[in-house]
Design goal:
Helix 4 packs across helix 11, helix 5 runs antiparallel to helix 12 and helix 8 runs parallel beside helix 9. By secondary structure, the chain is an alpha/beta fold. It has 12 helices and 8 strands. The relative contact order is 0.18. The chain has 2 domains: 88 residues, Four Helix Bundle (Hemerythrin (Met), subunit A) (Up-down Bundle); 191 residues, P-loop containing nucleotide triphosphate hydrolases (Rossmann fold). Strands 3-2-4-1-5-6-7-8 form an 8-stranded mixed beta sheet, with helices on both faces. Strand 7 and strand 8 form a beta hairpin. It binds guanosine-5'-triphosphate (GTP) and magnesium ion. Magnesium ion binds next to helix 6.
């Protein structure tokens, strides 16, 4: 077992999620016939595993109809059907990430509720893009929480990228403006904007976010600006309402699901894929600088079902 192998790392991270979905279902299907009772039990397991009602219904229907088409009757055969269908649901989430633009930089506003892993993800992303030969800048626009600027500055140093920062209590939109202008002047490929965590139910804070976006647009009018929402993989179904609220405020062009390591609620990614259709760009699988992986639906399904 090597932690340097990304697939092994993903597999290990998904161990608890696998327990609550795959292993539990594998247990109930053994030596059973595919019938309504069995399907009810599978349904309950999926719901409890944060897969969400819609995806659960789709999975149950798929098992039913494919079992009929292929004349399958043994419970054990359910596992292959399930893997196929989950993989299919997740494939909607695959997305190409491109930093190609006629006008540099591409801007990623990193948004999300408190403590989901925004700043850590910025550190990992900075490293990811820098390692891929991109010129990266970070805008330290969480001027609200004490120590936030220092925290993101440490990440910038670790990955050797530039940072634009200001004092605690400065106007975050003003820092964002400076960061965008500087990123353009220095020919950066990507600007990562760290923002303060906010409850998605507080409309004044959501308004502040859209102000940051407007101001960045003014600083770099020709740049593509994307809002990337960070979701904590341990929160389960609440993640879905976070996507809805942030989408209204600043749009949502992609997701990063963090903390998949150690949670049993990783099934939420299936719910997100089925219900929202917002691409998952990356998943977080640990606290280290390398613990960020591009999301790949095939790999994910493989890791979830791997023995
Ligand atoms: N295990 C694990 N921990 C993570 C991951 N991503 C972030 N964390 C941890 O989550 C905690 C919060 O991370 P931050 O990056 O500070 O979160 P934030 O969203 O910036 O927080 P605020 O700025 O306060 O809203 C830290 O202890 C991180 O180490 C991950 O993928 N896996
Ligand atoms: Mg932060």
């Amino acid at each position: 077992m090597s932690f340097f192998n990304p697939f092994e790392k993903l597999k290990n991270s998904l161990a608890k999620t696998k327990d609550t979905i795959v292993n539990k279902i594998a247990q109930v299907v053994t030596r059973r016939k595919i019938d309504d009772d069995l399907l009810d039990e599978i349904e309950q397991i999926l719901i409890e595993a944060d897969v969400g009602v819609r995806a659960t219904m789709r999975l149950i229907e798929a098992i039913k109809s494919r079992a009929r088409e292929r004349r399958l009757s043994e419970g054990d055969e359910v596992m292959a059907l399930l893997k196929e269908e989950i993989s299919d649901i997740l494939s909607k989430e695959d997305e190409q990430i491109s930093l190609e633009t006629a006008h540099k930089p591409v801007v990623w506003l990193i948004v999300g509720v408190n403590g989901v892993g925004k700043t850590t993800t910025i550190g990992k992303l900075a490293n990811y893009f820098a390692t891929n030969g991109k010129k990266v800048m970070i805008g330290a626009c969480d001027t609200f929480r004490a120590a936030a600027i220092e925290q993101v500055a440490i990440w910038a140093e670790r990955s050797g990228v530039d940072i634009i920062r200001s004092d605690n209590g400065a106007d975050p939109a003003a820092v964002a403006f400076d960061a965008a202008s500087a990123a353009r002047a220095r020919g950066c490929d990507i600007l990562l904007v760290d923002t303060a965590g906010r409850l998605h139910t507080k409309s004044n804070l959501m308004e502040e976010l859209s102000k940051i976006k407007r101001v960045v647009q003014k600083a770099v009018p020709d740049s593509p600006i994307y809002s990337k929402l960070i979701l904590d993989g341990t929160t389960g179904q609440n993640a879905l309402s976070q996507v809805k609220v942030f989408t209204e405020a600043v749009g949502c062009d992609g997701l990063v699901i963090t903390k998949l390591d150690g949670t049993a609620k990783g099934g939420v990614i299936i719910a997100i894929a089925e219900e929202l259709g917002v691409p998952v760009d990356f998943v977080g699988v640990g606290e280290g600088i390398d613990d960020l992986q591009r999301f790949d639906s095939k790999q994910f399904a493989e890791a979830l079902f791997a023995s």
